[in-house]
Amino acid sequence: MCQVDEEYNGQLEHRVTPRVSKKCVKCKENTAVLIIRAGDAFCRGCFKEYFIHKFRAMLGKNRVIFPGEKVLLAVSGGPASSSMLSQVQEGLSRDAPKKLRFVPGIIYIDEGGASGQSMEERERAVAQLESVFRATNYHYHIVHLEQVLSLPSSVLDAGSSATEKPQTGSSYKAAVDQFIQTKKNQHPDLSVENAQSHLSSLSMHEVENGVTSPITPEHTQALQKLFASVRTLTAKEDLLHTLRQHLILHTARTQGYTKVMMGDSCSRLAIKLLSNISLGRGASLATDTGFSDPRYGDVVIVRPMRDYSSKEIAYYNRMFDIPSVFIPGLDTKAQDKASIQHLTESFVTKLQTDFPSTVSTIYRHPPPSCSTLPAGSS
Amino acid sequence: MAAPIAIHLEFGGGAELLFGSVKEHHVTLPNQSEPWDMKQLLVWIRGNMLKERPELFVQGDTVRPGILVLINDADWELMVGVLPECVLCVKD
């Protein structure tokens, strides 16, 4: 989402209309700085708490990420995935009370070949993102979209689940307890916290950070030919999404990741939901937009940013200086009616301005299980 | 009320593409008899700063849906009702 902000230098003040400056609805003391949902005003501190808590609650409630698992974070550089990255950092950091416990890796897919960017622009974007990734100290992979053309077709097969992982709550708790016990036994002189950083530093040094081999202009041309053969922007966007998904999946499988975290916000998912219905993908709505997508078998895709609206993410990034890089995509500056996805986005966003509960209504409708969809749209 | 006002504008999240890919701008709003308000500011931006595709930034009286506006790092919606009516003035 675009963002405009203005600051006035010390000589100015703005006088508000007769409305008194609002207090935060949570602590009731500090002045509110933003409104989320349908009118709740939060101050800076309470908003930060709310934001961080929501992320951990999302992971804790769903209990699909087991301790010690390797999780691949799909970061596009945009605000939502950058926010997700910072939340993961926050959750894994030492001073978090109930620390998250998994081993993260980052993947960034350079799609410049498909959206017609020049090599310099792509390299610049990659360099910016690399500096962000290096600051996290997590293992990262930079993959160019051109590589999807040389993937084996076995990427389309659904793998079987690597190990039997019963999903009941008690087993999850048992797994967590066992993990803590093992860590304590293995490194009696190290605390659990040190063990975690030890583990992540191990993965850093074992393998080179995955910046894949440079691509040749022929590869780029082959990719561009592929996209040029697709006539409508709708189909191009769909193709791009599919190719991206395959690349992420392939990387996860070859590098041993069992989970992938995608940074789709609830606004993005609501738009995706409606566009998918228009594109004829109604049957897979629950897995396309739900929290977890187990269709690939051995790799499960989760969406922890699912409950955040794009406004919340944008404000959080701005207030707490989360770095994000804007990379133009296929539909940047396109006309409203250029593609189904773009039209749906403009429809939902416009409706959301006047009816702030639009997005939450849309994406809460499909049932959590893969059963039938309620007839008609919301 | 009539003095020119200096403001600092920042664009992000892709909005900067409409302003020549420059994120930060320091501008001075010219003299005028009535106090400046947000609606007039947007009109001024549209007329003087936007390089292309005005319909992607401004829609009618206000910004296009989806564009978030912060004034001094606080939500614009907090300060106004629906229409931009907050008044800018110079502090002594």
UniProtKB/TrEMBL annotation, chain A:
Pfam family, one: CTU2
Chief place where the protein resides: cytoplasm
Known pathway: tRNA modification; 5-methoxycarbonylmethyl-2-thiouridine-tRNA biosynthesis
Claim: Lipid biosynthesis is one of the keywords in the record: no
Annotated Gene Ontology cellular component terms: cytosol
Protein localization: Cytoplasm
GO molecular function annotations of the record: nucleotidyltransferase activity; sulfurtransferase activity; tRNA binding
InterPro entries per the UniProt record, alphabetical: CTU2 (IPR019407), Rossmann-like_a/b/a_fold (IPR014729)
GO biological process terms, semicolon-separated: protein urmylation; tRNA wobble position uridine thiolation
Keyword vocabulary terms for this entry: Cytoplasm, tRNA processing
Family membership noted in the UniProt record: Belongs to the CTU2/NCS2 family.
PANTHER family: CYTOPLASMIC TRNA 2-THIOLATION PROTEIN 2
Function of the protein: Plays a central role in 2-thiolation of mcm(5)S(2)U at tRNA wobble positions of tRNA(Lys), tRNA(Glu) and tRNA(Gln). May act by forming a heterodimer with CTU1/ATPBD3 that ligates sulfur from thiocarboxylated URM1 onto the uridine of tRNAs at wobble position.
Name this protein carries in UniProt: Cytoplasmic tRNA 2-thiolation protein 2
Organism lineage: Eukaryota, Metazoa, Chordata, Craniata, Vertebrata
Automatic annotation (TrEMBL), chain B:
Keywords: Cytoplasm, Isopeptide bond, tRNA processing, Ubl conjugation pathway
Compartmental location: Cytoplasm
Pfam families xref list: Urm1
Cellular compartments per GO CC: cytosol
Main location: cytoplasm
PTM note: C-terminal thiocarboxylation occurs in 2 steps, it is first acyl-adenylated (-COAMP) via the hesA/moeB/thiF part of MOCS3, then thiocarboxylated (-COSH) via the rhodanese domain of MOCS3.
Glycyl lysine isopeptide (Gly-Lys) (interchain with K-? in acceptor proteins) crosslink, residue number(s): 81
SUPFAM superfamilies reported in the protein's UniProt record: MoaD/ThiS
PTM-bearing positions, type 1-thioglycine: 81
Signal peptide range in chain numbering: none
UniProt pathway: tRNA modification; 5-methoxycarbonylmethyl-2-thiouridine-tRNA biosynthesis
GO biological process: protein urmylation; tRNA thio-modification; tRNA wobble uridine modification
Superkingdom of source: Eukaryota
Family listed: Belongs to the URM1 family.
General function of this protein: Acts as a sulfur carrier required for 2-thiolation of mcm(5)S(2)U at tRNA wobble positions of cytosolic tRNA(Lys), tRNA(Glu) and tRNA(Gln). Serves as sulfur donor in tRNA 2-thiolation reaction by being thiocarboxylated (-COSH) at its C-terminus by MOCS3. The sulfur is then transferred to tRNA to form 2-thiolation of mcm(5)S(2)U. Also acts as a ubiquitin-like protein (UBL) that is covalently conjugated via an isopeptide bond to lysine residues of target proteins.
Descriptive protein name: Ubiquitin-related modifier 1
UniProt gene name: URM1
